[in-house]
Structures are given as C-alpha cells and as structure tokens.
Amino acid sequence: MCDLLRINTNRGVMIGDGKQRFSKNGTPINQFLGTSTFSEYTVIHEGCLAKIDPSAPVDKVCILSCGVSSGARISGASRIFGVDLNPKRLEEAKNFGVNEFVNPRDHIKPVQEIIAEMTNGGVDRSLECTGNINLIISAFECVYDGWGVAVLVGVPSTDAIFKTNPFNFLDERTLKGTFFRNYKPRTDLPSVVDMYMNKVFKSSVGDFNECLLITFQQKLEVEKLLIDFNE
Amino acid sequence: MCDLLRINTNRGVMIGDGKQRFSKNGTPINQFLGTSTFSEYTVIHEGCLAKIDPSAPVDKVCILSCGVSSGARISGASRIFGVDLNPKRLEEAKNFGVNEFVNPRDHIKPVQEIIAEMTNGGVDRSLECTGNINLIISAFECVYDGWGVAVLVGVPSTDAIFKTNPFNFLDERTLKGTFFRNYKPRTDLPSVVDMYMNKVFKSSVGDFNECLLITFQQKLEVEKLLIDFNE
C-alpha cells in the first residue's frame, strides 16, 4: 500500500509542507482525508487526483467508491447471499445482485453454520462489510475449507480483536482484507466511471446504474461540517 | 479438501467398512492416520496410494513429506529468514536455504517488528512451522501490508486461539494455512520423488538431496507402537 497517501484521519494537513489550505478569518481549517471533497474547490496531492470521462455526470459518479468496487456481482458471482438482520433490506439488496437472503434472527445456530448447510460446506468467497467483529469471524468461518476466501471490507472499531481457532486456517481457508478493492484510485477509478457510462452491468437482477440511487440532494452546511471536524 | 480421506487421528478404522485390517491374537489393532505405514505391509484406501518412480530408493524418499513441499526455497525465494531460539540451528537451516537468521532472544522488541525493520516494512511471505500460537501471530504480523501473505504450516494445539487486530487484514495482509502445500498426494507426491531423483535443487546454498539426512536407522518396535496407539 502507498504509505505516502494512505488515508489518515488524524493528519489534517498537506503532506508537502504540513500545512492546511483552508482558513476562515485567519483560522486554519484542517484537510479531510487528504482530499476535502466536501468543499466546492480544494487543493489535493497529485496522487489523489484521477482523470475521468469528462462527459460523466459528476452529481452521479461522485458516489462511486469502495461500496461499488468491492461488490460480489461486479466480480461475476452467481449465487450471492445477503446476510442482514433487517428483512426490509432484501428488496434493496436484490438491486445489487443478492439473490438469496439469510436473516440470522430466523435461526438458532450461528449464521456461518446456516450458510455452510445451504452451500454443502461453505461459500467460495465471503465479504464482510459492516466491520462488526463478530460478523468478521462469521464471514471467515462460513467459507469452504480447501479454497474458501473471506475478504474484509468493513472498518472495525480500533480496539476490536479478531479471534478464531487456527485450524480454520490450516484447513486451507484464507482471510484477507481489502482497502478499496486494492484499487489504485488514480489509475483504476476512471474504469469504474467508464462502467457507469457504458451501463456494463445492466442485467435481469438489477441495473448497476439504477443502483446509484440519489435519494435526496441537499446543500451541505460545509462551514459547520469543517468546523466540527476541526474540533 | 477431500472430506473422505482427510487425516483423522481418531478414526482408526478403514472408511469402507469401519473395521481394522490388523490384529494380534484376535485383538483388532487400529489403523494409524489411514495408512499405517509403520507396518511392513498395510491395507489402505486407493486414494491414499501414490505411484512413484520405481527406481527411487525407498529408504530415502519415504521421508518426503510436508516439511519438503512447504519450504521457501522450493518456491524460489531469495532472501530467506530463519527464526529460531536455538542458534545451533542456523548451520542446519542453511542447508534448507535460510540465508539470514533472527533469534528473538537477541532482541527486546517482538520478532515481527525486528523483521519489519530488516525488510523495510515486512516480508512478502512468511511460513509458520511450529504451531506455537504466539509465533503464528508474529508470522502474520511480520508480512508487508499491501501484499504480504502468511502461511500456517505448523499444527497448533486444539485449544489455541489466533488473535489479531482486524486492521492488520484491512491493510491488505493475507493469512492462510496449508495442509501439505495443498498437494493432492496421489497426483503431486510423485513429482517430489522425481525432484529428488533428478537432483533439481542442487545449488550453492545447499543440496536438496543432501538435506534428506538419515541420521540413524533403527528397527521400530512396531508392535509396541501400535499397541500404544490403540491405548
């Protein structure tokens, strides 16, 4: 991973000179995640800049981020299980490619055992998107031994501890994490915009583009946000 | 993994009919790990049988097992660190390709930090061969974030618990285990015998064949061993 530009919520300043680029009435305002994209104009390190198709609608493609790049359908999976405590999310999840749904509240056994039963031993790949440490453990333990791979996407709390019996690894399961699907944003993000523009993912189970729902638009109180962040 | 023939130290009987093939004075003697190769003659499931080069010396190639197949040099690594508390093992380890040695007793910091310093951030691959749970954790945490992969080979105690901060995964480290290098013994083991016969691994840092040291040979008290195992 790029040590220089890695997301650092504590930095708040530009890498080059250790200073901010925003101020109000002489008071410096910190950078947000190295990009400060809540601002209408910003100053960022050249490595954080990606050139995209100039005809792309920026009010839509601005939300193309790790939630899209790390999805299962984009990788060609056919049987996609969604696991959620909220049954209302099923319909919404179908738009993103989920075609089977497991609600842990419907079962007494741990969800990893339910999924192993539904798949005759476990899934080929699992993605954990919440960061909840117990779900991270379930996501790892629901993959098939011999070749199963669990991928962590969700950000856990800083004091979370992952625990498992090491025999789960020796049985040839793999656990890895991904940060933005290991995309190199500058070179890889433009291809996601191209997929949006070319409607690559239109299919019977949902339309990739229609999934980029903009439920409402609102003028951000940017000044307040930035001041909150500084504090 | 093959559910049928997976090593099961508790089974002790043939899969087909659930019975033993050995006996003494009418008392059944259990199978050992599905093969009972301490015996001069044995009965095994056909899936446990591999046909090897008939000219191979069986008193040498009988010890070709996971310790050889899972090694670092066989996979082409150039910088190979050996980590051991016993400095006497350095010379022996050189024969197996180790060219740098770290003794955790020589350092105050955890060994994963020492290795990260020696390698400007961590190693590309680490192999843990002891099964000690603390070393498993060290082996995982000494790999480079972004692409490092730790592979577990050693068998831990059944009640061991692997623990780590999940951010170590999100930083794109991978942890996996291997069982006999994921070899399919029946199809892959003959190639290891061929490597021995063809002296493929003769090199300046050691001779693969000479590493198959037979330090002494001894007639096994097979009856006693089997009876101990039955008990």
Provide the fold topology:
2 copies of one chain form a homodimer.
Chain A: E1 22-24, E2 27-29, H1 58-61, H2 66-69, E3 81-83, H3 89-94, E4 100-102, H4 111-118, E5 125-128, H5 133-141, E6 149-152, E7 162-164, H6 167-170, E8 174-177, H7 185-197, H8 208-211, H9 222-230
Parallel strand pairs in A: 3-4, 5-6, 6-8
Antiparallel strand pairs in A: 1-2
Subunit structure (chains A, B): Homodimer.
Domain Alcohol dehydrogenase-like C-terminal (chains A, B): 70-195
Protein name (chains A, B): Alcohol dehydrogenase
Textual characterization of the structure:
The structure is a homodimer of 231-residue chains. Chain A is of the alpha/beta class and 231 residues long. Chain A is built from nine helices and eight strands. In chain A, strands 5-6-8 form a three-stranded parallel sheet, covered by helices on one side. In chain A, strands 1-2 form a two-stranded antiparallel ribbon. In chain A, strands 3-4 form a two-stranded parallel ribbon. In chain A, strand 3, helix 3 and strand 4 form a beta-alpha-beta unit. The radius of gyration of chain A is 20 Å and the shape is globular. Chains A and B meet through strand 7, helix 6 and strand 8 of A and strand 7, helix 6 and strand 8 of B.
